[in-house]
Amino acid sequence: MSTLRKLAQLRDASPVVLPSLLLCDFGNLEREVQELEAAGVHGYHLDVMDGHFVPNMSYGLPIVEAMRRLTDLPLDVHLMISEPSKYVQRFAEAGADILTIHAEAIEDPRPVLEEIRGLGVGVGLAINPATPVEKVEAVLSLCNLVLVMSVVPGFGGQAFDEVALAKLRTLRSQLPDETLLEVNGGVNEETISACGDAGAQLLVAGSAIFRKPNYALALTNLTRLAGAVS
Ligand code: DX5
Q: Model-level pTM?
């Protein structure tokens, strides 16, 4: 299925809760995928951390390749890395459907965003809590997805930063309908409704799923609270 078709499917299904693969059981990745797909997930958010742009190291190309073998669903790859231009082609080849870089990682994101578009995958741009929307306004038209971080990236299980809500509202009023709006960090049963109300279409959740005994129940509750009647 083409990337554009996958983006459209996410848009049509939204609001969509995407599991963030950081706190999952990597020793049983195939079983985790089977359980999540049985629970009705629409895609996966993959947290790539290089231990430099963020103070943590997670995983890279081999996990993206493994997920590509395990699922046909969209892979939303979040690059929390310092030099994304060095790696975007390899992540596209590994099977990413969306590649999201951070505005804080590079002086001018435009060339890398254009390179990602040239690779035929979805173009994503992320901003941290301290980064104002104004900083990226000039390149929003190049994006298929804009990610508003509601935590300083690097770890799961952090508290939600409400600064994200005003940014979501601002971006939703500025972006064309076909551009996906995503929120990530501290999204759980207490915070997800406000994110849905503020216009978020993709709602990334880690601990609110993987620290629960029943993934299906957690996903159903989060999806309902996000505003979608399951
Ligand atoms: C943090 C990551 C998030 C994180 C979300 O830097 O980008 O995807 O895993 O986990 P929770 O939902 O627990 O904040």
A: 0.97
Question: Ligand 1 pocket: which of 50, 149, 184, 225 to mutate (most atoms <8 Å of CB)?
Answer: 184
Which residues make beta-bridge pairs with 102? 126
For residue 219, give Cα distances in angstroms to 58, 71, 230: 23, 18, 10
SS3 content of the chain, % helix, strand, coil (to 5): 45, 20, 35
Residue 58 CB–ligand 1 contact under 6 Å: no
CA of 17 to the centre of ligand 1 (A): 13
**What are the pLDDT digits (tens) for 35-61?**
999 999 999 999 999 999 999 999 999
Q: What is the pLDDT of residues 195-219, one digit of tens each?
A: 999 999 999 999 999 999 999 999 9
* Structure-derived torsion over alpha carbons of residues 225, 226, 229, 230, reported in degrees to the nearest 10: -90
